User: Fold this.
Amino acid sequence: MKKPFFKLLLLIFLAASTAVKAQQEIKLYNGPIPNSNNCPDNEKWSVSITGRKIVKNVTVPTLTVFLPEKQNAIRSAIIICPGGGYADLSIVDGGTETAKELVKYGITVFVLKYRLSDEKCNINNSLVPLQDVQQAMYRVRKESQKYNIDPAKVGLLGFSAGGHLAATAATHYNDPQIKAEGISLRPDFTILAYPVISFMDALTSKKSRTRGVLLGKNPSDEQIKWFSAELNVNSSTPPAFLIQASDDSTSLVENSIAYYQALHHYKIAAKLIVYQKGGHGFAAYNKAEDDHWLPYAVNWMRLNLFLK
Assistant:
């Protein structure tokens, strides 16, 4: 009779030891939303055909803050950019669930609910997501004392199209789309999970809708090159951790390889893990190989960046 009772106590103890402080969702912009036609907030939540909980029609961007019970000594932070092809956001498995795992390492996490492609609600459709991720970087750094984080240790984690957004932010931080007021928009690092990196034809899968949703049916060559992160890497591009599966038919593994090679060319710290199986959209756990990969990313940060 005692064993079940002690098992229950153990479960309660474990749950408490990894508890997350109550999260808070805040509006990304304190004032008017730039590049917006001020459409009403008409978010729609649903479950996709793959079983993911997704949100569409995002016109009012937000940050949801996840504070760890015990912060690491380095006081680092990660902003998560969920995927969804710029048409919706898989904001649970590629957002809040991942955040709850990361805070266990003492990292403060912000899940970004960025605006989606909508020609009626956005003035310049292609730049709206980039504005939002730059604003997130600005807000987190400006309010770093409030969250007790080091403003020089703020990175981005992006899934799929969110990986494309994070890589775009990492390669175009010197082209601010917001009023940054002297605050750097450069991420200190990026973690890119099965990212769309390139909009070049050779690297764009027929199954990927990301380029068309963001840029429309007939993007110019200049737009395609500007939004292809592997073509915009330079010696100041932030370090990156990349993870992808060889059998990914939505975002071809060559995307991650091309970005890794571009970083390697400039001798920028980078790590690339390629699964044999896993497909696209496995979030923080690759069921096909029974592998949780977030510990690898955190260990890479610890060994190569600043979590020593």
Residues 1-19 have pLDDT under 50 and may be disordered. The radius of gyration is 19 Å.
